[in-house]
Amino acid sequence: MKKTTKPVLVTGDRPTGKLHLGHLVGSLKNRVEMQNSGKYECFAFIADMQALTDNAKNPKKIRESVLEVAMDNLAVGMDPNKTTLFIQSQVPQLCELTQIYLNLVTVSRLERNPTVKSEIKEKGFERNIPAGFLIYPVSQTADTTAFGAKFIPTGEDQEPMHEQGREIVRSFNSIYGDILIESEGVFSDNKACLRLMGLDGKAKMSKSLGNCIYISDDSATVKAKIWEMYTDPTHIKVTDPGKVKGNVVFSYLDAFVKPDSFVRFLPEYKNLDELKAHYTKGGLGDVKVKQFLYQVIEDELTPIREKRKYYENHIEEVLEIYRKGSEHAREVAQATLDRVRDAIGINYFNDKDFIDYYKNKFKK
Ligand code: TRP
Questions:
Q1: What is the model's pTM?
Q2: Among candidates 72, 13, 22, which has minimal Cα distance to 44?
Q3: Whose CA is nearest to atom 2 of ligand 1?
Q4: Chain segment 76-114, per-residue pLDDT in tens
Q5: What atom of ligand 1 comes closest to residue 143's alpha carbon?
Q6: Is the CB of residue 94 below 6 angstroms from any atom belonging to ligand 1?
Q7: Which of 41, 51, 140, 179 stands the most exposed, by the fewest C-beta atoms within 10 Å?
Q8: Angle at the Cα of 281 (from 280 to 282), degrees rounded to 5?
Q9: Which atom of ligand 1 lies nearest, measured to the CA of 10?
């Protein structure tokens, strides 16, 4: 195993479908940037075991999404030469760590996790919560601590997981000694990226609400989706004053516009403030703004699409990347697990103190 002193970054995606623009701006861009900075030792994985916690009866969906999520990651720029890419279920050490951590959390603490709470509502579990689902924040703590994560780039909805993870780490370290590392979430500093609205203006872009643009959508699909986007229903004629707040097109521009977007695609405006001011005053039509957004998003997605095409035509290469990555992840997780077992004192056959204790005890 390669020794490193760089801080470790770990992140994961549930394979319940293809990744969308919310994932792209909320978490993928950050992880690619951090990877490319060369400042971190990086791990990025597909959280299939976690996805099964609320899809036990539909393993087909998970199985069919694993490679989609793998290709999405590779397409946006995750690089197997810089990051260990792996699949959660191929690292059984994570399950063992989970079992050990479970003794350090209470059921009522798990029930208070705000993200889990809202997911329970969303999925209509009521009192019939799969036990595995309730404890997924604990398994998520295994995912990160196994690799010594310091930083976890995710969507901001994951903060309660990070918080619960830190509690487990503190509890473990105070009982068994300083073994585990506390980690923190890394979120986009562009507010518009933290929670990308759905195409319909609903608070969140989400697969289950069917209001997404997928990273792998083709140009025609992206265009059709942008043309149907919710804007301001009171902005009927071009001359009408329009509202920017709650207007999906503008909220996406907030998330996607780059410093050079105006010079390249809409040079009659200097920046987004100018465009918003014109729209608010009246005299600027939706179609023109949508056309601009379409160009900005296409600019972002075109190179991603090309890369994805390559991997779609080289599935065996994708599999090999994840097979090798999973092997490396197992080694790293096993090293952590060995230290954890030592600290708890359940590493009997390799524990000289344990053996000597019994030898001495029965000597006379
Ligand atoms: N819960 C995360 C999500 O829904 C996925 C995930 C699982 C994860 N394990 C992780 C993210 C560890 C970061 C680190 O997107």
A1: 0.94
A2: 13
A3: 13
A4: 999 999 999 999 999 999 999 999 999 999 999 999 999
A5: 12
A6: no
A7: 179
A8: 95
A9: 14
